[in-house]
Amino acid sequence: MRSTTIASLAAVAALTLAACGGGGSSASSGEGGPISGEITVLTHRTDIVDTVFADYERRFKEIHPGVEINFEAITDYDGEVRIRLNTQEYGDVLMLPDAVTKDQLSQFFEPLGSLEEMSRKYRFATEKAYEGQVYGIAITGNANGFVYNKRVWEQAGATEVPKTPEEFLAALQAIADRTDAVPLYTNYADGWPLGAQWAGHRGAISNDPDAVNDLASTDAPWTPGSELHIIDSLLFDAVQRGLTEPDPTTTEWELSKQLLGTGQIATMNLGSWSIVQMREAAANPDDIGYLPFPVQVGGKFHSVISGDFKQGINVHSDNKAAARAWVDWFADQSNYATDQGGISPLVNGPEPTTLSDFTELGVEYFERTPEPAGEEGLVDRIDDESEIGITEHLYRQRIVDAARGARAETKEQIFAELNQRWAAARAETD
Amino acid sequence: MPRGLTPWLFLLGPLALLVLFTYVPVATMFYYSVTDWDGLRRSPDFVGLENYLEIFTRPELFEVFVVSLYYFGASFVQIALALYFATVLSFRVRFANLFKGILFFPYLVNGVAIGFVFLYFFRPDGVLDTLLALLGGEGITRQWLGDPAAVNYSLAGVSVWRYLGLNFVLFLGAIQSIPAERYEAAELDGANRWQQFRYIILPGIRPVIGLMFILAVSGSLSVFEIPYIMTGGANGSETFVIQTINTAFRFNDFGLASAMAVVLLAIVLLVTWLQRRLVPEERGVS
């Protein structure tokens, strides 16, 4: 009995102490002097925080010897950091969680400079900008497409790059007929591969940088010929024709990389960030190639490029000077984007070698236009209100289930219901 | 120091933890349920009962309770099995402690780990299919998680495996608190094992069985962990709590999600109350 009491008293004491702790890392530098102090950097890269990031720290300290950096790698980054934003303790430097809407940016993050000035130097500056101020710099940038195993595609005789969804499905059919590979792997069980990876093609299909913003002014985003109709139909048709994995509910992301590398999977729909990881998992890295979404406008393929996570500074940071030094150094000198096979955030940064397939095909890149002033976050708000989640996986899992016969719904019924929910939500959202 | 104060002093630690980690969060949940908070905004707007109105005007939100029926059905299997094992192991059995350990072990394992273990168990050509093939049961092999007719049975099966140990230990404790003289007397009178179970054990543990059914009902209404980890609620395995999580974290409506949590709490309390009224518990006079 006695020892438990002592234990609970100790627990209370520990809680009290913990409440007093934290926020003790203030050592900001004087104006103009050398930058010093201690900063905490939150990162989602749990895989390379002890290796690549340790090396970044070493290189950064050659320039700013007075700065101490603590990395904090978080597995469920978006989920965890979004909750921590309700406190003041979310590191000094962090990746801006996507849940923060543009009008909330100034509540949590330090402005880094005017949009006009920042966009002269950096790509993707508009993505986390509000009322002319930029709050985050992209750590790298991605194009969108399908990562595929060239050897398997060749083996199936699919050597022409498909230019229409029908040609794409025909190529998948050839793979199914002539090889043992799964033609298109959805990664259904992990969820996220059915979310933003598919939604990322919006804009590229109609070669329209305003395509996403225009969703705010339509009552039927899933009409034949519309982007979402084309994207989600491709998914539905591929599943319905049996061109995807037989049991989608037991897929596994980490394993899928090896399966693509060894040719047991032919194709996956993933952003260009995945190419480096796929090559690492492949027996022969040259087998891994990248295809654009099978639609051409004016005889050309297009791909939207957009920023990965954007790095910014906690508005409550005690050491903003050191935090700023890290953000600038990371964007300008770390070479993170190029090392990870991504598009450099620097306007005059080098072309990534991972996208050489796109260069050969003459794929044209463009960034989406930010929403017009006063309408920031409107499409997201309609999306939340409708509970569809265009960049989430839930409704695409439903599409897969219907297509494989696990739900008694036709494609047309699903699209009609989605349109109806979108229209209702649009009427409710201001 | 006044004598009356001492017990409170001892209770200070646990009570502080209870208030901090149970009552304060529940109170804030009630508060959020009458706001339109998106999970981030500093000052959420008060919307009164709007969220509750929305819940009760959207019948599709309650459709997912059909899934709870699978778990409720499974809880009968679970209670029956637990009672069987507890009874058998309360008699003199060789290696009794080993079997007790084996039965209780799954309850100690982290739920996330169990989810992953069973993902491998259920995948095509996985452990279950291999076992079935060895036993000549290839015919009943199916996509255990992919087949919409099978997925909820598979998940409920995992739930039985996981929580059996808890029921088992509670039953065992109750059975062992029955005085040994009664068994001796029963044996002298020539009662067999079944009669001992029927007329000594069953009446002796009646309150515990009542408790089990209350736990079974509230447990099957608020199933979360196993389906969330294994299927994420896909393929028709979505439960009310998964739906609540999605409302909060995918569609950024913490107000509505909190109201859904309050409604679930109310439903559980209501069902428990009904159960107590329908099956009154005997007072502990034997």
Question: Could you explain the architecture of this structure?
Answer:
The complex is a heterodimer of chains A (430) and B (286). With 430 residues, chain A is an alpha+beta fold. Chain A has helices at residues 2-20, 52-63, 77-84, 105-108, 115-121, 150-155, 165-178, 196-199, 227-240, 253-261, 274-281, 320-332, 336-339, 356-361, 378-386, 394-403, 411-428, and strands spanning 36-43, 66-73, 93-95, 113-114, 129-130, 133-134, 137-138, 141-142, 144-149, 182-185, 265-271, 288-291, 296-297, 300-304, 306-307, 310-313, 364-366. Chain A has a four-stranded mixed sheet. In chain A, strands 3-16-7 form a three-stranded antiparallel sheet. In chain A, a hairpin with a 2-residue loop joins strand 13 and strand 14 (300-304). In chain A, 46% of the residues are buried. Chain B is mostly helical and 286 residues long. Chain B has a domain at 65-238: MetI-like fold (Orthogonal Bundle), CATH 1.10.3720.10. In chain B, 69% of the residues lie in helices and 0% in strands. Chain B has helices spanning 5-32, 50-56, 65-90, 96-108, 111-122, 127-134, 151-176, 180-188, 193-204, 206-221, 225-230, 240-249, 254-278. In chain B, helix 3 packs antiparallel against helix 10 (206-221). The mean pLDDT of chain B is 90. Chain A binds chain B through residues 5, 7-9, 11-12, 15, 79, 82-83, 85-86, 99-101, 104, 107-108, 188-189, 191, 246-250, 252, 384-385, 387, 389, 392, 394, 397, 401, 406-407, and chain B through 10, 12-14, 16-17, 20, 38-42, 119, 122-124, 126, 143, 145-148, 151, 231-232, 234-236, 246-247, 249-253.
